[in-house]
Amino acid sequence: MQKQKRVVAIHDISCVGRCSLTVALPIISAAGFDTSVLPTAVLSTHTGGFENFTYRDLTDDIRPISDHWQSLNHSFDAIYSGFLGSFEQIDLVAELFDTFRTKDNLILVDPVMADNGELYSVYSPEMARGMTKLCAKADIIVPNLTEAAFLLDEPYIAEGYDRDYIEGLLKRLSKLGSPKVVLTGISFEANQLGAATYDSKTGEIHYVFNDHIQGFFHGTGDIFGSTLLSALLSDFPLAEAAQIAVDYAHECILKTVELDQEKRYGVCFERAIPYLIKRLGL
Predict the structure, then answer these.
(1) CB atoms closer than 10 angstroms to residue 29
(2) Going by fewer Cβ within 10 Å, which terminus of the chain is more open, N or C?
(3) What residue stretch is flagged as signal peptide (predicted)?
C-alpha cells in the first residue's frame, strides 16, 4: 500500500468565514492526505463583508515552527501557501520552501492578495511586488486575474479580453519562475466561468469551465486551490485537476444557493465533500 502523502498548508485562520485554513484543512484531509498547518495570522472573521475584525500577525512564530519541524526531520509531499500576514513573511516562507524542498515534492503558491481589481485591505503594493519572490520558487502558481495584474505590474482587465490576452498572461506569469500556471476567474461567455492552465515545459494550454452562477462567493479561490492540489496529489494531470477544482467550486456554490445561505460566510463546501470524494475516485 502506498504511504499516505503529507501536505503543509501555510495560510491564515479566519475564525468565522469559510476560507484559508478552515477550507484547506478539511478539503485536503477529505482527499486522504495528512495535512499539517502553519498559520500566518489569526482573524476573528475573514476580511470580505465584515468590519472591525481582529487581526493577529503570526510572523514571529513561522521560523521557530519551521526549525522544530527540521529538527524532527519532517518532510512534506506538498507545500501549499496562500494568504500571508506581513511583508516579512514572504522571506520566511521562501526560506521554508528552500528548507523542505525535495526533488519529488510539489510547491503550490496561491498568491492570495486581491480580487475584483483591488488589493485586500491588509495588503500593500509592496507585498504584492514581493509575492513574485514566492512565485519564482513554486512549481505551480494559482493567481486570479487581479492577482496576475499585480504580479506583472500591468493594468487589470476585468472583461472583454480574448484567448490571446489570457494566453499572453499565462506565459508572462510563467516567466516569474513557476513552470506551471493556473489562472482563475476566466470567462469568455456570460454563462461560463473557469480557469486556464499552462505548462511551460510542454507549451500546453487548456481551458476548463462550468456554468457561471451570478454573485460573488467568498472562499471559492481557497476551495479551488485546495481541490487542485488534492487532485494533483491524486495523480490527475494538470488540466483534469483544474476541471475537478472548477466543478467542485461550482457544486459548493450550488449548495449555498439551494440552502439560501448568507454569502459573506462563504460557501457550503461541507455539503459537497461527498461529490469531491467521488470525483477523486476515493
Answers:
(1) 16
(2) N
(3) none
**Tens digits of per-residue pLDDT, 190-213?**
999 999 999 999 999 999 999 999
Q: What are the cell numbers at 90?
A: 514572504
- Give the pairing of strands 78-81 and 55-57: unpaired
Q: Could you give the number of structural domains in the chain?
A: 1
Report the chain's mean pLDDT, rounded to a whole number.
94
Pairing of strands 6-14, 106-109: unpaired
Give me the CATH number covering residue 36.
Answer: 3.40.1190.20
8 Å CB contact between 123 and 153: no
Q: What is the pTM assigned to this prediction?
A: 0.96
Domain assignment of residue 270, given as a range: 6-279
**pLDDT > 90 in the chain, percent:** 84
- pLDDT one-digit tens code per residue, 60-83: 999 999 999 999 999 999 999 999
- Does residue 192 fall inside a structural domain? yes
Q: Contact at 8 Å (CB) between 271 and 255?
A: yes
Please state the length of the chain. 282
